[in-house]
Amino acid sequence: MHLIPDFYCRRIACLSLALPASLLGCGGSSDDGSVVYVDGLRVKTRINKVNVYDVEVTGGDCEVTIAADNTVKRLIISGISNKVIVEAGAKIELVDFAGRSNRVSVPAGFKTRVVNSGDDNKLIER
Length: 126
Description:
By secondary structure, the chain is mainly beta.
């Protein structure tokens, strides 16, 4: 019979407790060419593309910035408590809120179409 020293038992217990906490920042963004996907928890990303594209935010507590001079055909937010910042000069044809407690911050006078089937979502002019 093999005995495991107490040191190793404590180390394994600490690692198993730390693992869920380390997963909190998991996720990220991926790009398939015409769609940029943002998924995970507390992901922070800035998107800057030349061609027209869609953005899908399915994560939670993410911060996404759409760079100036970008054109987004559809911004779909189905996650919870996300923040999207639209820089001056960027264009978004449609913002589709399907999640909850999401915010899209746009420059004053920004024009877009909004569909809101979620709860407590806001388009905020700054």
